[in-house]
Specification:
Strands 2-6-7-5-4-3 form a 6-stranded antiparallel β-sheet. Strands 10-12-13-11 form a 4-stranded antiparallel β-sheet. The chain has one domain. Helices cover 11% and strands 38% of the residues. The chain has 197 residues and is mainly beta. A hairpin with a 3-residue loop joins β6 and β7. The longest helix is centred in the middle third of the chain and has 12 residues. The chain is built from 2 helices and 13 strands, in the order ββαβββββαββββββ.
Length: 197
């Protein structure tokens, strides 16, 4: 099971969306206006060791949806300066180093486990009142994919709901994929978010 992610009622400086808008403008897969980006939803995984936070954002610029998974660490990740999204001050946890998740071994291990075990995203625990809610994104692993792999998982950055193997699109729910279903103002959406070898 993916467990339960602890969510704090905290003040962040800078805020998550501000940090992500600044970072995506430098990424080759993003060619839009970062100031138009708004958060649609997000889902989480849990580090079994309890040290690294993992949150995957779905952001929209009004025309496209982008998938941006990050990790939160209490100290710098060695040899990962190129993957640093930025730092933020968390009013409860202190300084957090935020990384592009595919460069973080904790994330790559967990996303492979979720896929291979046909697992789901973590539930959310509000630390202040103890309430638990399910993930707002229905995540499901497609099985196989293996817990170990040579290549980093392929994160689908620009989300597509195409589901056609002949068009070289990963099939929703197929082995080696992580699929998400969520709802927004435009309705219900399902797409492949990660593919592993």
């Amino acid at each position: 099971m993916s467990g339960t992610a602890e969510i704090y009622d905290a003040v962040l400086n800078p805020g998550k969306l501000e940090l992500l808008r600044s970072w995506v403008r430098t990424q080759s897969w993003f060619d839009g206006d970062p100031e138009r980006l708004e958060q649609v939803t997000a889902y989480r995984f849990v580090d079994p060791e309890g040290e690294v936070g993992m949150e995957s954002f779905l952001l929209s610029d009004g025309a496209r949806t982008f998938h941006v998974p990050v990790t939160y660490r209490g100290a710098e990740l060695a040899d990962a300066a190129d993957a640093l999204v930025g730092t933020m001050e968390h009013s409860v946890l202190g300084r957090r180093w935020v990384y592009d998740a595919p460069a973080d071994p904790v994330y790559t291990t967990e996303v492979r486990r979720v896929i291979s075990h046909r697992d789901a995203a973590a539930d959310h625990l509000q630390v202040e009142d103890g309430s638990v809610t399910p993930s707002p994104v229905n995540i499901r692993g497609g099985g196989e994919g293996g817990a170990e792999g040579i290549d980093a998982p392929q994160v689908i950055r620009v989300v597509s709901e195409d589901n056609d193997a002949e068009s070289d699109c990963p099939l929703i729910g197929s082995p080696g994929t992580l699929t998400g279903t969520w709802e927004d103002a435009d309705g219900r959406h399902t797409a492949v978010l990660v593919v592993v070898d």
